Amino acid sequence: MNFKFPGLSIGWRAGLACWLAMAASLGAPVPANAAATEITPEQMNAAMGLPLWSGGDLWTQSAADAAARLQARLESDTVAESVYRVAAAEVFGLPPENMKITGKNGPVTDVLVMFANKGDTLGVAPDQRAAANPREYRQALAAFREKELQLARTIRRQSDHLEQTLTALLVPYRKMRFGEGYKTAELVKAWQWAGHVFLLSEQKDASLSMRIVPAAVAANRGKAQRVSDADLQAELQTRILRRENGDVVITGIPMINQGDKGYCVPTTWARYLRYMGIPADEYMLANAAGTVKGGGTRPSQMLAAVSQLVKQNRRSIKTLTGRLTVDQVARCIDKGLPLMWRMYAVGPFTGYGYPPERMAELTPAAWSASLDVARRAAKSMKVDTTQGHTSMIIGYNAQTGEIATSDSWGVRHAEKWYTIEAAQAVSQNELYVISW
To answer: Average pLDDT, stretch 212-221?
Structure first.
C-alpha cells in the first residue's frame, strides 16, 4: 500500500518528522521518501518502539510468542483466550498506562494500549480514614486534584501526538463507530495498514486508547459472532468443575487485574461479558457507565450500559433479589452461569475467606463442623454501608454451606470461599445473571 497525503499541512510534517526521528533513533532503516514507500513490519516496530511484529501479519502469530518478544506477563489464561500485560516504556513516543495483547486459540486477536485515563492515571481518590493525620490527607487530596485538573489536557495532547504520528506514517484516518450498544460503542479514528487497523478513541476528560485489530473485525465494528442458545448452554456445561469434596465451581472465567483504581464494577462486568462471549473491557465500560474519577460506579448506570450490550447479543440480564442462599446460587452455577454480586465491603472481608484447598485432608462434614465459629462470628460482623463492592459468585458447596467468589485483582483472588452466613452479612441482596 502506497502513502497518499493530500495537502501537506504543518501537522503532517510534524508527525512525519516525529516518526522519522523515532525510527532513526531505534536504528531502523529510514526510506528517503517515506511518503512513497510501503511500510514494513520492521519499520512499524521502530515507529511503535516495540518488537510487536515478527515478519508479516500479526494475526497469524502466536500470542505467546508476541508476549515473549515483549517480555509480557500473563494476566489471564483460559481454554480459548489468553491475555498478556506488556510493561512498555513508550508506544509511538508516549508512555502508556496499560498495554495488553489478547490471543484466542493461539494467534493474536487484538492489542489494546491505554494512555492517559481517569482510572490508571488518577488512581483511587485519597481516603481520609486511611491518612495518618488531617495534614497528610489534605496534601494527598491536593495532589489528586492537580492530576485531575491536568487529565483533560494530557488526553488532548497525547491524542494530537498520536493522530499526527499515525497520519504521517499511514494514510489519513477515517472516522467510524466501533463496538456494540448505544452507550458502549465509541467514535474512533481509524488508520489501516496491511490487514491491521489502528483505532484511536479519545473520550473527553476520561480516556485515550489505541486498539490494533484485524481489518475484518474493524469492518464488522467489533461485533461478536452470534452463538446459538443451545451451543452456548452446551459450552457452559463444560466449564463446570465438580470436585470430590462437594465444591461446584465455574472455570474458564477471564481474569483482569484492576490494579490501583476503583474499577471493581466495570472490571468484574467485563470479565463476565467476555466469559459469555461478548467483547468488553473495563475502560470502555467505565466510560459508558460514568465511573467517577477516583473510583466508584453507580450499579444502576452500569446495568443500563451492559443491558444494551447484552441485548445486542440476544441475551438478557436477570435480576435476583432477596436473601442470599446456597440453593439460589446453585441454580445458576449448575447452568454454568456466574452471578454478579453487590456487597457492603471493599474486597475480601478479612478473616472470613478461605482458599480453594481449604479442606486439605478433612472430609466435607469435618470441615463444615470447623466452620461453626466463623458462622457465629458472622452474626456480629460490622458492616460499613458506605463502602460498596462488586464481586462475582462462581461456586457453591451444598455440603458445607459455602459459596465461592472471584475478585478482579489477579489470580490470587480468582477463587475464595465464604460461609453463606458471612456472605449474607455483607450482601446487598441483589444479584445479576446473564442468561438466554
So the answer is: 96
